[in-house]
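This is your field. Have a critical look at the following sequence-structure pair:

***
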Amino acid sequence: MKATPGSEPERVEVLLSKLRECQRTPWPVYDEIRALGDVIPSRWGPVITGYETCRRLLRSRDWRTPDYQWRRTRGSRWTRPASREIGRSLIVANAPEHTHLRRGLGQMFDDTTLQRLRQVTEETTERQLDLAQRQLAAGTADWTRTVAEIVPVTTLTRWLGIPDRDGAALREWTHAQAAAQELLPSGHDLDVADAATAHLELFFTHLIADRRAVRQTDVLSQWLAVWDSIEGDQEQADVIVRRLAATTTAAGIETTVTVLNNAMWTLARHPEQAKWLAGHPEAIPAAVEEILRWDPPVHLVSRVASTDTDLNGHPVKAGDMAYILVGAACRDPRWLTDAAKFDIARQPGRGGHLAFGLGPHYCAGAALARLESQVVLERLLARGPLPHVVSAEWEPRVAFRQLSELLIAHE
């Protein structure tokens, strides 16, 4: 659809473009977009804001993820190296490939695995909180660099059997690669994402070669054994395991870093609720869910129509992309009373929040992200009153809204 001046398509495009520059407070922009309707046509494809419609699309098998086959027929940004690699990953694969990959993985984070990773998370959290406490004694601490980035990186690398020394590089590469999934990436963003993708491919290629030479008891060695038996071809198995390792690392780090940042940012601005929560640690799991709803780790996801269809009265052609504004949907007042209010004591809304998606592509690492978030809050709140926020800086991103710096200090 061609946007005419003053039309809904033009207005929503302007508002979406504006989001990149106002990541500190995107909520008024979401309200403006939501006021245009549940489904707003644009040149890029329909933009979805309403909770019920977003939920329906995420659950529907008629709306597919933008996989490699879709990307290869689109414009230049979709055929860039980073985009092509993401298009072949588990997170955007469609059936039957997605079913095949998930079946081969089994249940990645079962109770036994989570219990083992809890110990890693607890030890890492205590060490990093000790470091933050020493920094606070001298003035300020950067919560992002000291805690939010380190805990998920260490937990993921220990799970995969990756040396701790490689964690910082993996964090840098996975964050850079995520720019390829943004709504309006710049040419520079895509160049950086392509370079990061090349680094990740080389890193995991070497790591898998090492596991081929010397098998261990880590997850990568287990995956190699599984995919050798499934594929009957070591070269193909290596490619699959490399992509699975890169995908789980990127998704696990990028998502949880954001949740931990959002937890500190949100609770520091609601000190009475933080104080209550410190005295009621049994409510921490519910508080994590409210943090996820209030400010999801991913604010925008995409789906592609598999056939010509109608979306709330708007015709959509097969292959058209829909933009699901999860950040707006989770604050839809028609779904949840006082949705704009942060309240750790609220009852969950019917159907639950959409922070980890729904349907076939529900986040495979959701249980681990919840575990890490709960552990960090438990250990943080047990140390006394929360620090206050001195300053906060966000990345100029829309889909992966993320703090790049969160300076904290004691009163």
Observations:
- Residues 180 and 190 are 6 Å apart (CA to CA).
- The mean pLDDT is 93.
